[in-house]
Design a protein that fits this description.
The protein is mainly beta. The chain is built from four helices and 18 strands. A hairpin with an 8-residue loop joins β5 and β6 (about 90-95). It starts with a strand and ends with a helix. The radius of gyration is 21 Å and the shape is globular.
């Protein structure tokens, strides 16, 4: 797809249009097209940042939204530049300068974030270190899948992730689950982690952890349902995970099969 550059890419300020080509589910190639005479074409490798860190988030400057024609209704995609090394594991990602694409108007621009406001984002973070954070040892069995002992959670975007089985018995080898970030549907989603689970996962006030919920897919996303009563909890410090079964008497507003459409329409 060809995009018009509305906000210059630092170092390539003369580029007016670029071609973005998907390489696989995570990586794309950006190739310069229209640029000043005598300048050679240049290609950059980009990555979907949510495949590496699902909590990647930033405030898009209002001026950039206006320049790119982003109004909250048009679909956008976010990419980050990959600094290639001999191997993907040793290659790095620049999380401080995301590239924003307006997929409807075919406009693109890069924004340089203020490092002081985003101290957890760097110009070079090794992909290998980030990928390791996505593999988890199952400390408490997933309901109905008690033979699964290790999984990999791969974010698709800021909403959905895929949980792939790495180690299990023959029955569930190759099994995968669709997960969702519950806070994208309901801001009030909250629960107290029972003490046995805190001990099992070695959680404390300094732990960095993520919460997911399993999605039971239907023909369309809006008809698919979410299990809010049994969240999947991941401790990023030690890469332990468990499915926590909450007491329905304490959490009467959380169901095991709530339609996504009920929250999208609110």
């Amino acid at each position: 797809m060809t995009f018009t550059v509305k906000n210059p890419i630092p170092g390539f300020e003369d580029v007016r249009t670029v071609e973005i080509t998907e390489l696989d589910d995570f990586f794309v190639k950006l190739t310069t097209k229209e640029r000043d005479e005598g300048k050679d074409q240049v290609s950059l490798t980009l990555v979907n940042p949510y495949a590496l860190r699902p909590n990647y988030d930033f405030v898009m400057p209002t001026a950039l939204q206006q320049v790119l024609g982003i109004d909250g209704k048009k679909p956008i995609r976010v990419y980050n530049v990959v600094i290639l090394d001999r191997t993907i594991e040793n290659s790095g990602v620049n999380f401080l300068a995301p590239i924003i694409c307006n997929m409807e108007d075919k406009t693109v621009g890069q924004v340089v974030l203020d490092a002081a406001k985003y101290p957890n984002y760097n110009q070079f973070e090794k992909i290998g270190n980030l990928v390791k954070k996505n593999t988890f040892e199952v400390k408490q069995p997933i309901l109905g899948f008690e033979d699964i002992t290790k999984v990999e959670i791969v974010p698709f975007d800021k909403f959905f992730s895929t949980m792939k089985v790495i180690e299990s018995g023959k029955e569930h080898a190759g099994t995968s689950f669709t997960l969702i970030n519950p806070y994208t549907l309901r801001q009030d989603y909250n629960f107290e982690v029972p003490t046995p689970y805190q001990v099992l996962l070695d959680l404390d006030e300094r732990s960095e952890w993520r919460v997911y919920n399993i999605v039971i897919l239907n023909k369309t996303i809006d008809k698919s349902v979410v299990n809010f009563i049994a969240p999947v909890l991941c401790n990023l410090k030690n890469n332990f995970m468990a499915q926590v079964v909450l007491d329905p008497k304490k959490y009467p507003n959380y169901g095991a099969a709530e339609k996504i459409s009920d929250f999208i329409e609110k």
